[in-house]
Specification:
Residues 1-84 form the HPr domain. Belongs to the HPr family. By secondary structure, the chain is of the alpha+beta class. It has one domain: HPr-like (Histidine-containing Protein, Chain: A). Helices cover 37% and strands 27% of the residues.
Length: 84
C-alpha cells in the first residue's frame, strides 16, 4: 500500500467534469484506490463518493493505492490533481 498527501490545484477542484475524469482514470487500474479528506475515506472509483467530499481547489487530500499497479496509479492520480 502506498499513500500520499496532495494539494488539489485544479481551478474547479474535483467537481463535475474533473471528478468524472479522475474516476475514469482510477477505474483503469486494478488496485484499490481511496481518497481521504477530513477523516472521511471514499472509494476513488466512485463518482458519487468523490462528489460527496466536495473537494475544492487548494484543499489537501490523501490518495491511497493498494494493489498490483499501486505505484503507477498513485503517480497518475497525483499528477492529475496537481495540474492547474
Amino acid at each position: 500500500m502506498v499513500e500520499k498527501y496532495v494539494t488539489v490545484e485544479l481551478t474547479t477542484g474535483l467537481q463535475a467534469r474533473p471528478a468524472a475524469q479522475f474516476v475514469q482514470k482510477a477505474n483503469s487500474y486494478t488496485s484499490d484506490l481511496f481518497i481521504e479528506k477530513d477523516g472521511k475515506r471514499i472509494n476513488a472509483k466512485s463518482i458519487m463518493g468523490l462528489m460527496s467530499l466536495a473537494i475544492a481547489s487548494g484543499e489537501e487530500i490523501l490518495v491511497i493505492a493498494d494493489g498490483n499497479d499501486e505505484e503507477k496509479a498513485l503517480k497518475e492520480l497525483l499528477s492529475f490533481v496537481s495540474e492547474s
